[in-house]
Amino acid sequence: MHKKTGLFFGTFNPVHVGHIIIANHFAEHSDLDEIWLVVTPHNPFKKKNTLLPDHHRLEMVYRATQDFEKIRPSDIEFKLPQPNYTVNTLAHLQEKYPGREFCLIMGEDNLKGLHKWKNYEVILKHHPIYVYPRITASGQPTEVPRDRIFKIDAPVIEISATAIRNDIRDGKNVTPLLHPEVWKYIDEMNFYRSTTPGQAREA
Ligand code: ATP
User: Fold this and answer.
1) Cβ(7) to ligand 1 under 6 A?
2) Is the CB of 52 under 6 A from ligand 1?
3) Superfamily (CATH) of domain 3-159
4) Ligand 1: does its nearest atom lie under 6 Å from the Cβ of 107?
5) What pLDDT, on a 0 to 100 scale, did the predictor assign at position 1?
C-alpha cells in the first residue's frame, strides 16, 4: 500500500510551535503516515533581508521535528529550479518516491487562493488537499472541487513567525513559542537581532 505523505510547505523563518502542533495533529488524527515540512528556498529575485539562508531554516526544522517519528524536514525544493511551483515539486517528488501518495496540507486561508496556483487542476487531480482551520479564513472558491478537499479539525493557534522575529529583535522572551533546540540555535547564532549583519528591521 502507498505511504500517505502530507506536505506542509513554508519558509519556517523560524519554525515555531504553531507549525509543529498542526503537523503533529495531522500525524495523530488523520490517515497520513508521515508529514514532511518542506522548507521553501530563498527566492534570489525577491530580496527579503529577514529571511535566513535555506540551510539555517532547514536546521531549525530538523531540530524541531527530531522528537517526532512521523514528522520530517524536507529540502527537496533547494535543488529545484526557481521559482518553485508546487506542481513541479509534486511531479519531482512523485517520480523520486513512486511508493508514496503525496497530499498537501494547508490552512483554510491558503485554500482561497488555490485556483490561482500554476496548474491547480493538475495538482487537485493527483493530490488530495488536507485543510485545517485558520481564524483569517472564510468561504471557499467555487473553482475548487470539494471532493478533493479534506477538512481536519485541528486547533487554531495564531502564532506568527513575523511576530517572533520582531520580539527577538526587541529583546523579548519568545522561548514558549519555539522548540528549545530551535531557540538555542537562534540564540547562539544571534539570528533576528537587529545587530545581526544582513538582517534589517521589519516593518
Ligand atoms: P511569516 O510570519 O514569516 O510569514 P508564517 O509562519 O506565517 O511566517 P510560514 O513559515 O511560511 O509562514 O508557515 C508555513 C505554513 O504554515 C504556511 O502555510 C502558513 O500559512 C502556516 N502557518 C503559519 N503559522 C501558522 C499557525 N500559527 N497555525 C497554523 N498554520 C500556520
Assistant:
1) no
2) no
3) HUPs (3.40.50.620)
4) yes
5) 67
